[in-house]
Amino acid sequence: MKNLRKAAIYRVVLGPYDRAIEDNVSREDYDLFLFTDIEQRGFTNYERKMLPTTELPALKNRELKINVPKCLRDYDVVIYVDANIQICKNIDLLLDEFLASDADFGFFRHPYSNNIEEEIQAVLSNRKAMPEILNKELEALNYTNGAISREPVTDNSIIFRKNFSRWDLFAFEWYSYVQKYTGRDQISLPFLREKHKLTEHVFSWSPRNITNKYFVVFPHQVRLEKSTIGYFKSFLLFIKKSFESRFKQL
Question: How far apart are CA 55 and CA 196, in angstroms?
Fold first, then answer.
């Protein structure tokens, strides 16, 4: 890792939304933190930061995702990773790519949507938000009057950050839209990335692409009866990628 003193990876698990998993990231490489309100198995290599229970775990999860926790602000780079994403191999090369870009923030490409129009259609088609609330959010973003949204649309399940002072004002506005309207962090982000002129690095692929070497995305714990098969498939994929990673190191 180039020109780096300290890096942290953190995750958030609130309520029963995600299963506890393990991954192939070592405390020798990164400081690891789990913000959670439940005692659970899994993430055994992460330092736990216990939180009070909340009636709105999904919203609190997004608050902690968007706003860098105070206890992590002394790190040079902080990497947020969704709790249902398993790390299969060392991510130093990804961190080096991010640092070499000289960007303050790093995102991955969205696996399906290229622009905000496609994302809006996907949200409506999959009933991820009420149309009237989504329309209010788009009006507030000045979408109907031609506000510019930055492309490509990003997959926000993993976020690299290294300039917290520049991030704070942006994060405050981003979370305010998430909290007030649909709760979807993908809707306002393309507009706010452009408005705040973020210096960003967008990785050319998505963690949800099964051909990537670094990550496996598991189904969420919610609706367990529908996700068991998907969970088993993801677990087998994790075993395969982990084995390939270790074999190449020999």
Answer: 32
CB burial readout 145-184, b (16+ within 10 A) else e: eeeebbbbbbbbbbbbbbebebbeebbebbbebbeebbbb
Asked if residues 94 and 84 have their Cβ atoms less than 8 Å apart, the reply is no
Of the candidates 78, 71, 89, the one whose C-alpha atom is nearest the C-alpha of residue 215 is 89
What residue ranges define each of the domains in the chain, with the CATH number in brackets? 7-249 (3.90.550)
pLDDT in tens, 68-90: 999 999 999 999 999 999 999 99
Return the C-alpha torsion angle 131, 136, 140, 142, nearest 10. 60
Residues 6-56 have pLDDT tens digits of 899 999 999 876 666 788 888 888 999 999 998 877 888 999 999 999 999
Tracing tokens 């991954």 back to the chain, one arrives at 23
What span, in angstroms and rounded, lies between the C-alpha atoms of 54 and 38? 11
Q: Around Cβ 104, how many Cβ atoms within 10 Å? A: 19
Query: Torsion over CA of 175, 181, 183 and 189, rounded to 10 degrees?
Result: -50
